[in-house]
Design goal:
The structure holds two protein chains of two kinds. By secondary structure, chain A is an alpha/beta fold. Chain B is α/β, with parallel strands linked by helices. In chain B, helix 7 runs antiparallel to helix 8 and helix 8 packs antiparallel against helix 9. Classes of the chains: A alpha/beta, B alpha/beta. The interface between A and B is medium-sized, with 15 and 24 residues.
Chain lengths: ~120, ~250
């Protein structure tokens, strides 16, 4: 059965790349371009996994993670980060995110990390 | 970059300078059969005008006695004034040895008129093949290694991503310039942070480095210069992409 993944990201190139790779790996991918859109999609759908950037328009990364943890505590979260965000990543881990991937991501690493979390659940 | 195509003959863009209507018609038919994209100019002025207004072509085929600028002058203008390292074929009625030497001092090939399909196609294919062999695999502004790796060499996906790069970064740079006018340094930082992965994905280290600086605690007095450099780097990348992939119709 196809797994449903929510990608929350505002860089169009990263979005296209994630969509391409995750779809190629057999997943059903939905995209939110900002925090508000993400919250709307989260209200209307159930996801097996969430990949999210931490610097998004309208809603901060911390607010978004709190929202996800409160409403769908069992949905694993992978943070999409850049290498300069170590302190932000540590905060995210403290809030309960499961993993992080650096942008631009390694395609094989993405597949492995996503599969690991999907299989875990 | 052209190695992305299965064959250099596929979808090549050819600019033809030819004043004789019947020769034009013959050549158009050949181009149609060979799946070449053809731009026809009746004289050198029109050709130069087209080159100044548009992206470049894969091959220039110019009649020797073009007026008011000869085929040699157009070839010279393309190579030396515009600095385009692209192949030129001169078309001529007669090819005596001395004339052949003269032509080959300016161009990569000669085609004898009237156009005969077989020999014309052969000469064009050979010239395109040669130009691809000598075309550099890499350039200073971008690399497709990451996108190739990501997509497993999916050409359609790579082309789509290049279009997305050009459009989205162009739009964000406008926002960046607006942020500078308003001295909104937080916005500048956020935009630079957002577009950094785009430069990273096409392996442009300079763009990525400037974005990293703008995204850090850089002195505000340095911001205008950094944004100016980023605009210039993007313009260079875009120019290179337009040159390498005219079929994308990038602006």
């Amino acid at each position: 059965m196809m797994k449903k993944i929510l990608v929350i990201e505002d860089n169009p190139m990263v979005i296209k790349s994630l969509e391409f790779k995750l779809t190629k790996d057999g997943n059903n991918v939905m995209v939110a371009h900002d925090g508000r859109e993400a919250m709307k999609l989260l209200k209307e759908n159930e996801f097996d996994l969430i990949l999210t950037d931490l610097m998004l328009p309208f809603v901060t990364g911390n607010e978004l993670i709190s929202y996800i943890k409160k409403n769908t505590p069992n949905t694993p979260i992978i943070v999409l980060s850049t290498s300069t965000q170590e302190n932000i990543i540590m905060d995210a881990f403290n809030m309960g995110v499961d993993d992080f991937i650096t942008k631009p991501f390694s395609p094989n690493e993405l597949s492995l990390r996503v599969k690991r979390l999907l299989n875990k659940n | 970059m052209k190695t992305l195509h299965n064959s250099p003959r596929d979808h090549a863009t050819i600019l033809l300078v030819e004043s004789d209507a019947s020769e034009c018609e013959k050549f158009t038919q050949i181009a149609l059969n060979e799946n070449w994209f053809l731009i026809v100019c009746q004289d050198g002025i029109e050709a130069i005008q087209w080159l100044n207004d548009n992206s470049t072509a894969d091959l220039f085929i110019i009649e020797e006695n073009s007026s008011p600028i000869s085929g040699y002058q157009i070839a010279d203008y393309i190579k030396n004034e515009l600095g385009l390292a692209l192949p030129v074929i001169i078309t001529t009625g007669e090819i005596p040895v001395v004339q052949e030497r003269r032509v080959l001092a300016y161009a990569e090939g000669i085609i004898k008129k009237p156009f005969v399909a077989a020999s014309t196609i052969l000469q064009i294919r050979e010239t395109l093949e040669k130009s691809i062999e000598i075309a550099p695999e890499k350039n200073d502004y971008y690399s497709l290694n990451y996108l190739n790796d990501l997509s497993g060499g999916d050409e359609e996906f790579i082309m789509e991503l290049l279009k997305v790069f050009s459009a989205s970064v162009n739009s964000e740079l406008k926002n960046l310039n607006e942020g500078l006018t308003q001295k909104d340094y937080l916005r500048i930082r956020e935009i630079a942070h957002g577009i950094k992965p785009s430069f990273d994905m096409i392996e442009n280290e300079k763009g990525k480095g400037i974005c990293r600086l703008l995204d850090s605690a850089v002195d505000e007095r340095d911001v205008p210069k950094l944004i100016e450099e980023l605009n210039l780097e993007f313009a260079n990348i875009n120019k290179q992409l337009i040159n390498d992939f005219p079929e994308l119709n990038l602006k």
